[in-house]
Design brief:
Layout lengths: L2 H23 L21 H11 L4 E4 L3 H6 L3 H20 L6 H34 L6 H23 L3 H9 L6 E5 L2 E2 L3 H12 L3 E5 L2 E2 L4 H7 L1 E5 L4 E3 L5 E3 L2 E5 L9 E3 L6 E5 L5 E7 L4 E8 L2 E6 L7 H5 L4 H8 L7 E4 L1 H4 L9 H4 L2 H25 L13 H14 L3 H19 L10 H11 L3 H16 L5 H18 L2
Parallel strand pairs: 1-15, 2-4, 2-15, 3-5, 4-14
Antiparallel strand pairs: 6-11, 7-8, 9-10, 9-12, 12-13, 13-14
Helix pairs in contact: 5-6, 5-9, 16-19, 17-18, 18-19
Amino acid sequence: MTSTFRWYLLGLLALFGAYVALEYYRPKPVDWRPTLINKDKIPYGTYVLYDQLPRLLGTDSVQTTRLPIYNQLTGLSLEETDMLAESQARTITTEATQEPAADSTATSSDSTSSETTSSTPDSDSETDSDATTTASTNTPAASEGNADADETTAMDSTAQNENSDDEEEPEHDWVEEHLRQARANYLFVNTEFAASKADAHALLRFIANGNDVFIVAENFGDSTSALLDTLGIRTRLVKLPTHAGPRGLPVPDSVTVRFTNPALAGPRYRLPGGDANVRFLVDSGRVGRALATDAQGRPVFVRLDYGRGHVYMCSVPIAFTNQFVLRPASSQFSATALSYLPARPTWWDEYQKQGRLGNQSLLRLVSGHEALNTAWYLLIIGGILFVLVEARRRQRIIPTLKPLPNTTLLFTRTVASLYRQGSSHALIAEKKVGLFMDYLRTRFQETSPDFGDEDFRERLSQKSGLTRSRVDELLRLVNFARTAPQMNDQQLLQLSRALTDFKREARR
């Protein structure tokens, strides 16, 4: 690891640490998302309501469920329903891929059976509607106590009619057989309520058996059309008067809500109009009662009777959030609305807000916090950049560099050939004598030799190991080369051989 890379790494770590410290100590912005989750303490969460739910309902048995309505009411596990749905999908796919039969009789038979199958839920819906209508006609308006008694009698007859219809519908018998028999309240506090066909049928059976369902939502999707049609209720958006907001934009006026019960009609609760613009419409002939209305008398909280149970529906979920439960002017609305439920074990639904319990990512803790989520994405991006840059540096092609050739000998031969071609033997001899003087200086430490000195000749003979006669002959040739104005080939060759032999024998 090079020093430059270390500095880069330390710089990245310092920036990351500074960013984490900045995000940790920075004031967290208020989260205004309408989650309505029972663990959220944000303004539009339901932590306070869920915490006070046992006191409001008068029971300690409050259970959070993360299962679909069908599974919660029938007790089937998610694995079983998933397997059933997969097998049904396979069956439908197999039937769709089969070639149609050539016999027209078989075709008409299949169409007849499909019509019979498709008419099953319609007959059940008509039965439920007729039963509710019967209960409506049997409910006198003179006395509330007599009304309750007559309603119970009428709903018993409705249940008998439903049981007689169930004898012809084995699917409904199967649901009735596996339906939980425990008395309980089923509570939904969502911005949007959804119920499939199976969920709606199980929920209606659950209500008809004498249980209560409390639904708080402002948006009922297309999946709940079967449930709403059976109960005989519809929703509609109302246009509220507006005023100029802070930036000149139109803002809906607030809505005043009050309960219709004379004992509760005193307090009036003000809610923001943008979150309280949904009203209920109950079909004529249906057994229902408006429990809370706006200033124009349009229902926002109703009770519908079905079988031996009741359905409570409220279109202002914002009144059940932390902000309005803690606000003194509106804190009693949710408490008063929930007081209509009996003191029974209660199921609080979180499936429609958080999904099934095992259907979350392993990084749900990271994704649940904005700072951790941002740091996670920065880590991924930084890792990708590091891999790309580092891989590019490591995989770059290194060119092959050929070593520079040693041209000293070639240069010497070239220069020597030039001297030879010019017949400059005296100059070549001068160069050789100069090299010989350098050799004496480096090899024998004779810095300023005097070739005519007897002591120098004796020392050179002893240092080189050659006889005195050999040394005298060599020095004679060297002196001749130094003083001769010209030299021929033979004299230059003799000098060159004498110097070569001296150097070779002196190395021994």
